[in-house]
Every structure is written in structure tokens, then in C-alpha cells.
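Supplementary Methods, section 5.1.

A reviewer requested that the exact input to the structure prediction be made available. We therefore reproduce it here, unchanged from the version used in the analyses.
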Amino acid sequence: MIPIRFAAPTPAETRALLAAYRRRTRVDTAVLAAELADDEPDATLIDLASTPFDSVADVADRLTRIEAHLRGDGDRRSVFLTVYARMTTAVSATLDEGGFDDPAWVTAYLVTFAEYYRRALLAFERRAFASVPQAWLLAFGAAERGETLVAQDALLGINAHINDDLTHTLRDVRIDPDRDVKRADHDRVNAILARLTAVVQETLIEVYDAIGVRGIDALVDPLDDRLALLGLAGSREFAWRNAVLLADLPAWAGERYVGWRVRTLSTGAAALVLAPRIDERTRRRIRRVEAEEAILSLFRDTLRRRSAVKLRHE
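The structure derived from this sequence is encoded cell-by-cell as follows.
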């Protein structure tokens, strides 16, 4: 059993959890759910998301098809999927090249991780909001209502997937036996995502430049600091520590304690992303410009081009 002193939050986690808790108390997802309840479900989207993923290839294929469907409808939920599909492709390529010590575990990791996204999306589209994690409800709800900037749509999805879904994924695929081997593979995934996060930041800056918006650095630079209260690397470390707590603490204590950590950080970080560090007048101007441009396709095309170049030179 893990010593109790190791169950306590690190100083960085303590600061992040306290800040997240303050922001989380201001979030009323019940009001959001009520506002969205009467929206008509998308039958095509439900069909695409209704069947569990059965392989990494299936994940890559259907994420791409769902992204294309949403983008074709002008649905801003496509923004996160543009990012997620590229991240999945990059990790899958490393898997195919033999870049992991435990490829079977990484395969299960990728499919299970995608399943958490699929189930959240499906529950949201079916208006089963009680089954949607709060961070995903905020991300999907803001995107569907068109209240966010493209940069926020990307960050909200990344936050929900890493700060909420990743802990549960690691629990499901198990970090034991051979914990050190699995930790090394988890860190290899981190390294791939860190490189692509830089590409996402570069993409966002290029996209905003292309539509004539300057000075967006306050929102996207540095991107890691806006992904969550702990940053991307800190959030993935947070998920691993949560998995250790779930594995080593008694179930009655671990599930409740880790559940609170995950809900607090992911919801508080979503609230942070929804309050960008730009003034309201500038935000409204950017939203008007985004509405007049084919912004979703521009983001997709730019990210594909930049990520292809980045991966080719790694």
C-alpha cells in the first residue's frame, strides 16, 4: 500500500487544485444542460459514434470521419478532433515503427483513451448530459453554441481528454505489472504530444494571422500554460500519479479521492480556458472574423501541413 504521505498532492498540484476549485464553484453545468436539452440530435453523428472502437485503425478512421462530418456542418466540435486525429496518427506511427517497449499495452491505451471521448460525445449528442463529464459538457456545449474562439475549442477538448479521460484510461489498461516499462511508454507518448502541441500553437498563430487577427499571443502563447492549470506535461504527470493512487490505495479511498482530483482540475481548467486573457471587445471582433471565414477548414489544412513537416523532420 502506498504511504499516506505519497497520496498528498505535490506543491504544484496543490496550487492547481486550489485554483481549479475556486473556478469550479462558479460553473453551473445544470444551466448549460437545460439550455441545450431541446437541441435536435444529429442522427449521422450518433451513427458514427454508436459502436465501440475495436482497433487503432478504427479509431483513426472514425475520428477522421466524425471530424469531417462536424466540419462540414460548421460544428466547432471538429476543432478538437482535428488535433486529436493528428495526435492519434503520430502515436500510431511510432507504434508501427516499434517505438514502444510494450506495444500491446500502448495499443490498448490508444483504443481505451479514444473510447472515453467517443462515449462522452455520444452521450452529449443523445442529450444524456448526466453521463457526460463536466469538462466535456463545457467543451461540447461552448463549441455547439458557438461562444468560443477556435483556440478555446482546441484547448477545451485537450483539457477534458487529458485531465479527465487519461486517468480513467490508465486505470482501465492497468499500470501493473511491469510498471516501470509502462511508465517509460507513457513518457514516450508525452514526448510525441509535446512536439505536436508546439505544432498546434504554431498553427493557431498562423491561422489567426491568415484571417487578419494580430496579437493573439495572449491566448495561445505559451500554449502549454493554457492547456490546464498544470500545463500539458504536468497534466499527464497528474494522470499517472492518479493511476498510481488508484492502484496502490484501498479502492474505497482511491476512487473517491482520485475522482475528486480529476473532476476538480478538469472542470476548473475548463473554466479558465473559457475566460481568455483578452478583452471582451477584442474577443467579439475575433469571433466576427472567424464567422466570416472558412476557419475550420483553414485550421485543419494548416495543422495537417505543419504536423507532416514536423513529423518528417523528427
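Residues 179-210 form the longest helix (32 residues). These observations are discussed further in the main text.
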